Protein: GTPase Era
Organism: Fodinibius roseus
Amino acid sequence: MEHTAGHKSGYVAIIGKPNAGKSTLMNRLLGSKVSITTHKPQTTRHQILGIHSEDDLQIIFLDTPGVINPRYELQKAMMKTVDRARADADIILLIVDVTDYEVPGRIFEMLSSLKGKKIFLVINKIDKTSGQQTEVVAKNIREKFDFDDTLLVSALNGEGLQELMDTIKTNLKEGPPFYPKDMLSEQPVRFFVAEMIREQLFLRYHQEIPYSSTIEIVQYDERDDLDYISADIIVNRDSQKGILIGKGGKAIKQLGRNAREVIEEFVEKKVYLDLHVKVRDKWREDPNRVRHYGYGY
Ligand SMILES: Nc1nc2c(ncn2[C@@H]2O[C@H](COP(=O)(O)OP(=O)(O)OP(=O)(O)O)[C@@H](O)[C@H]2O)c(=O)[nH]1
């Protein structure tokens, strides 16, 4: 049996409003892109797990969807994911964008209901404002909740991240590694491939298209010379199909090219990416479909 005396481990949930920088922070702490990030809110829909291992410790980060007031079934499933992450975690990081510092009451309620966990306030994007302003924001938030510690960081340029990492390590409890030490995440390759295609939707389309779409990998064949991937882009309404495809298929071809390049870099192999657009009327509002596409569970 593996000798684990002196070894530390724990789950760290990263929560906060949409666009606070949660995914950027996790990727930066891991030194690797595990979670997709874009300038648009609500990019993250699943609980994304990122594993940081050293000889004598293992930290399992849980990146979560931004906390919102859910309006449709997909968003309800996203919030269920946040609930589960905070329940699973030993340490919770509340990420607050220093330039968008209003913390909704529901987040404090959520934190107040937790017992026996360390809860840290992490003020992010401090590169965007003065030190004085950052202090004022931190002080105001601390008046509303008794955090175990406050950290000021920039997930983008790395400022304060070493201190954050040290604080997490100090607060880890003794425990065995939960995953093999060379593992970075637990989702299969096809999950990341779907996320990379979805990221392109967020980067390339406006308004409701990214929020109305999901990706289903229909076929993934690892061939000798290349990986053949067939994926469906599922949209919510018929009218969205045309917009997605674009005139003469131009828009979707460009999306496919961009996604393929990112996927090739990830799998370190040539990729043939076959994309199809499918309409599944109001899938976002349908609990069965939302579950079928893997959200909330
Ligand atoms: N200037 C600055 N921008 C940042 C920083 N951290 C994140 N951002 C930017 O903020 C935007 C949102 O970042 P994400 O990491 O996707 O945010 P998120 O909290 O995961 O967002 P959701 O998926 O909506 O929950 C991106 O455009 C990031 O580049 C930071 O420290 N400084």
